[in-house]
Design a protein that fits this description.
The complex is a heterodimer of chains A (267) and B (465).
Chain A: H1 4-13, H2 19-29, H3 33-41, H4 44-54, H5 68-90, H6 104-125, H7 130-138, H8 141-150, H9 154-163, H10 168-176, H11 180-190, H12 195-203, H13 213-230, H14 233-237, H15 248-251, H16 255-262
Helix pairs in contact in A: 2-3, 2-5, 3-5, 4-5, 5-6, 5-7, 6-13, 7-12, 8-11, 11-12, 12-13
Chain B: E1 4-6, E2 9-12, E3 16-18, H1 20-26, H2 29-36, E4 42-46, E5 50-53, H3 55-72, E6 75-79, H4 83-93, E7 100-102, H5 105-109, E8 121-124, H6 129-141, E9 145-148, H7 152-159, E10 167-169, E11 184-187, E12 190-199, H8 203-206, H9 209-217, E13 222-233, H10 235-249, E14 254-258, H11 267-275, E15 279-281, H12 284-288, H13 291-297, H14 313-334, E16 338-347, E17 356-365, E18 369-376, H15 377-383, H16 385-388, H17 395-419, E19 424-426, E20 430-432, H18 435-442, E21 446-454, E22 457-464
Parallel strand pairs in B: 2-4, 3-5, 4-6, 6-7, 8-9, 8-10, 12-13, 13-14, 14-15
Antiparallel strand pairs in B: 1-2, 11-12, 16-21, 17-18, 17-19, 17-20, 18-22, 21-22
Helix pairs in contact in B: 1-3, 2-3, 14-17
Classes of the chains: A mainly alpha (267), B alpha/beta (465).
């Protein structure tokens, strides 16, 4: 069904980060918001994405923000970087989805919701770290990878799933020895993202605990946030609820705190 | 979201957060209809991977599952939760619990037809005295040994010797039960039907005769009716069983009743049923625990004297679909190519029967027949690796996974045939520990035998009617 060769070919085909994006990210990293916005302006697709995403209700801006320099200034360095990474990832998403019932619009919605709620979490945890801030952008890569690798196997997967409760990550691991998060790590390397981002994403799978206490802690929040979002009707309808196995034990100690931060209604 | 059917229990596995909105999206009308077709007597929602739920979320699930119960009489409920979740559910619904709660799937399985009469030692405790009694009665009815703790202290004390018990039941609740349909299960390669109450003409409506006939064709030779809860039967029901026994005799199959004592039906009825070849036993275990008796009754050594029908044109035309389904499934589950070596229309011929296992699955509808697969042990293990997830030599686990594997092939056949506008249903898969068992069922049957190789090792596919 899925072979290691197929995974290698997939990774091979992932394009490196476009020059404009690399330059934008580099300038953002240096705190040069205005210069970064000027570079970003030259990429019309990036410009359109940024305007579209930050004006979603979950970002909570009262008035429409249209100017890129204004967007970067409002978001600040770390969140701007995170949003540019979101855009990079959206470049990998397919035009048409087969396995998941997604559209470009609701994939962007997922990215926006993850980012906005993740920022609430980071604020609550008092974490100011550009790498930690950016890593949430890589998480939906796991969904794009499943779509790319399994799209020709939809019926077969449905057959297997009617016999056994098994998720895509487990199927992939058992067939190839590699899981979704290993592939996410490969994407991160290709895009020259920091090792720390890769480590956090690997740990957020919930099955590969890190020896680093801080990475472990933030990974738990990411894991729980992902499943909070995948429990929203729009993403359940997209068949995303069980694409990955939720590790309840991994997140149990932060669960109550999470409910307060995200303000989950108990009714 | 679709339920996963395992050992006759259908389980939904939601993950994450369950509120009114998410629950409504998780279970669509199509999902409910698909569940109704599963012919199961227990439909559950596992809360194992649910970290948060509220009353609206559970109510939505209950509302949808109640639809399944109305049409199938299956028991419905939730399972796999901790004490905190149990208390929340009890608190949400208070005295209005119309569904069951099982702390684990193991507890739930004690109340499923597939696990009846396994004499499991179950330590039971509930704060609610009437629930303790209900559980004790139900466990007895299902052929287990309940040990009831009358107080929390007694329960905690007994729990210290956890190894003494097969299952520890706490934080569980038996909801209302509307069982009445006839559900089939497989044990020791015998098909077991559960019947209860007063049996009348409605038995012919509740009994799936197509399924039964195709189980015969798929090689099942022993059919047991569990009749512990039967009160009486009228002449219509008696005629139904007599006819069933006569039809079974043509396949050298046996029909037995267990738990139907002579005082429940008239002497005349009893004799008529005996004359038609039906056998009576007091307990199911009398049969299942006695391998010699099982073999004599046909569970493993049946012969096939009837229905050696030739393949017809419709079947031959569809042969590529059958082969494709098998080859594709093996490729899908193992990433290894299965290659067709040779094909011939003849009677089944297995060279070197040692160290091989087999499985068969029947199909019926627009066309009917049976697919048989014979694997060397090591190949079967490899083919099932994705389902097992680890290396094992546990024969029971391998046979179980082989059943699932053949079920997937059956599903694939069904879907490929549907692409050609041919509608079929599939039976439960039957597995054979030894090829000799298979040969007693399929020997001398005409059909297409296709020898295939998988990673260089040979295995056989056989399509017959």
């Amino acid at each position: 069904m899925i072979t290691k060769d197929k995974i290698d070919t997939y990774i091979e085909k992932i394009p490196p980060a476009p020059k404009v994006l690399k330059e934008t990210l580099s300038l953002l990293n240096d705190g040069e918001l205005i210069k970064a916005s000027k570079v970003a302006e030259s990429d019309l697709a990036l410009k359109s994405y940024l305007k579209h995403i930050v004006n979603k209700p979950i970002y909570g801006f009262k008035n429409e923000v249209t100017d890129i320099s204004q967007i970067f200034t409002i978001l600040g360095v770390a969140r701007s970087q995170q949003t540019v990474y979101n855009y990079m990832l959206s470049l990998l998403s397919p035009k048409e989805w087969t396995i998941f019932n997604l559209t470009e619009q609701n994939f962007h919605e997922l990215q926006a919701r993850l980012s906005a709620n993740y920022n609430k979490i980071l604020k609550h945890l008092n974490i100011i770290d550009k790498d930690i801030q950016s890593c949430i952008s890589l998480l939906p890569a796991s969904i794009i990878i499943v779509e790319a690798l399994f799209k020709e196997q939809k019926e077969n997967i449905e057959l297997i799933k009617s016999t056994k409760s098994i998720d895509y990550n487990t199927i992939l691991k058992r067939l190839t020895g590699m899981d979704l998060f290993d592939i996410c790590e490969e994407i991160a390397k290709k895009w020259e993202m920091s090792d720390k981002i890769s480590q956090i994403i690997q740990t957020s799978s919930g099955i590969k605990p890190s020896e680093d206490k801080d990475i472990n802690h933030i990974a738990k929040w990411i894991h729980l946030l992902l499943f909070y979002e995948l429990s929203q009707p729009i993403f359940i309808e997209a068949n995303l609820n069980d694409f990955l196995e939720f590790q309840v034990e991994f997140v149990e100690d932060i669960y109550e705190e999470f409910l307060q931060v995200i303000k989950v209604q108990d009714k | 979201m679709r339920a996963v059917l395992k050992n006759g229990i259908a389980v939904f596995h939601p993950q994450g957060f369950l509120d009114g909105n998410s629950a409504e999206t998780m279970l669509s009308i199509e999902d409910i209809k698909a569940t109704e077709k599963l012919e199961t007597d227990l439909v559950l929602v596992s809360l194992k991977k649910v970290i948060f739920f509220n009353k609206n979320g559970l109510e939505t699930f209950v509302r949808m599952l109640t639809k399944v119960r109305k049409s199938t009489q299956a028991r419905i409920g939730f399972c796999d939760y901790d004490t905190k979740k149990f208390n929340s559910i009890i608190n949400f619904f208070k005295d209005d619990l119309s569904f069951s709660l099982f702390n684990t799937i193991d507890t739930a399985s004690l109340f499923a037809s597939n696990f009846k009469n396994q004499k499991k030692n179950a330590l039971v405790y509930s704060e609610n005295k009437s629930q303790r009694s209900v559980m004790a009665i139900e466990l007895h009815n299902y052929g287990h040994n309940p040990i009831i703790a009358q107080s929390k202290e007694e329960f905690e004390e007994k729990k210290k010797n956890a190894k003494t018990y097969d299952v520890i039941i706490e934080n569980s609740y038996m909801g209302c039960m509307e069982n009445g349909n006839i559900v089939a299960k497989v044990s020791s390669n015998a098909i077991i039907y559960n019947i209860s109450s007063f049996l009348d003409a409605s038995i012919s409506n509740n009994f799936n005769i197509y399924y039964h006939n195709n189980s015969l064709k798929a090689g099942f030779r022993l059919f047991i009716f569990e009749a512990y809860q039967v009160i009486n039967m009228n002449v219509h029901a008696m005629n139904f069983f007599s006819k069933l026994a006569s039809a079974a005799a043509e396949y050298n199959a046996t029909i037995c009743f267990v738990g139907l004592s002579k005082d429940k039906i008239t002497q005349k009825f009893y004799e008529t049923l005996e004359d038609s070849g039906i056998m009576f036993f007091e307990q199911l275990d009398t049969i299942l625990d006695d391998k010699k008796l099982l073999a004599e009754l046909g569970a493993s050594t049946a012969t096939n004297t009837k229905d050696k029908r030739s393949l017809n044109k419709a079947m031959i035309t569809q042969l590529p679909s059958f082969i494709e389904a098998t080859v594709d499934t093996i490729k899908m589950m193992t990433n290894a190519e299965a290659k067709k070596e040779s094909a011939s229309i003849y009677t089944i011929k297995i060279q070197e029967v040692e160290d091989k296992i087999a499985s068969s699955i029947g199909f019926y509808g627009d066309i009917d027949g049976m697919v048989i697969l014979v694997f060397p042990n090591n190949i079967a293990k490899k083919a099932c690796e994705l389902l097992i997830g680890e290396e094992t030599d546990d024969k029971e686990l391998i046979m179980d996974a082989l059943g699932e594997f053949v079920n997937i092939i059956g599903g694939k056949i069904k879907s490929l045939l549907a692409d050609n506008d041919i509608r079929v249903k599939i039976t439960l898969p039957r597995t054979y520990n030894e090829v000799s068992e298979l040969l007693t069922v399929a020997d001398n049957r005409k059909g297409v035998q296709v020898d295939l190789t998988f990673d260089g090792d040979k295995f056989s596919f056989f399509l017959t009617r």
